[in-house]
Please model this.
Amino acid sequence: MKKDLNWIDLGLISYEQAFELQERIHQKCVEGAAKDTLLFQENPAIITLGRGSHDKNLLYSPGELAAMGINLSAVSRGGDVSYHGRGQLIVSPILHFERYIKGAHHYVRCLEQVVINVLGHYGLSGKRIKGLSGVWVNDPRTGTESKISALGIAISHGVTLHGMSINVNPNLAHFATIIPCGIEDRDVTSMAACGLIPPPLAEVRDQFITAFDAMFGTQTAKQTINKI
Amino acid sequence: MKYEIIMPEFAEGAEEINLRQWMVAVGDTVKKGDNIAEAATDKISIYVEAPADGKITAILAAEGDRILVGQIIGEIEG
Model:
């Protein structure tokens, strides 16, 4: 029998507000008062500093970033520096992940595979690169393997937080303000930069849910944040 | 009674786990299930929970140490 999950799409929302909601859902999941949930969102431009951040990977001062309309925030996920902005779909699975899979490392690899399968739906060949997390594609503009999906998760009381971003059509110039995830010799790309007419984020979200359910043997139904 | 604080098994499969920070110190009182330490792989932050109510009596791994799944990193007297 398939396990029931919820999905909630917060739409365009500030990172801080969305994180507050994410923590609330996480707490309810831990208490058993809410189902495991896939939480989707899109943020106005913000750079987040994970627990493993290094100052050298932030190339501009907070003042310079503010002048460019980019906020800055320290967050509780693993990983280094990340950028989020319009045109990027963020998914945060809030899950008792061991109900579906054994081992956090395996969970991360399965999440990456979900994104690879979503990209495949759009005719893009996503792949992993040994030693690097996230999902990569060949960027036709440069001919190099570039990151299209970043990943960073936290696990508290056995329930996951944070997750993945998928670059559908973000402002790639904003990524030049950081060394994303601390990886100096790799570029960032998007579905649009790879030559696709960028699909609506809601369509990519639906593809993600389909691929997630197929990967984890779940059945995910729509929920609204007001019901949590 | 003494309880061991152990790096949980769900981090199995990670290539390297570092003890990022202790959220408690020796002498602190904790409740079972409290997050008391944070460990991390390259992409995963993992919070270690107190295994019992009691007082932290020993910290056996330092912040920044590389640790293994199943390793005893501290002790609680409950």
Remarks:
- Chain B has a mean pLDDT of 90.
- Chain B is about 0% helix and 50% strand.
- The domain at 2-77 of chain B is CATH 2.40.50.100 (OB fold (Dihydrolipoamide Acetyltransferase, E2P)).
- The beta strands of chain B are 2-6, 17-22, 29-30, 35-40, 44-49, 54-59, 66-67, 72-77.
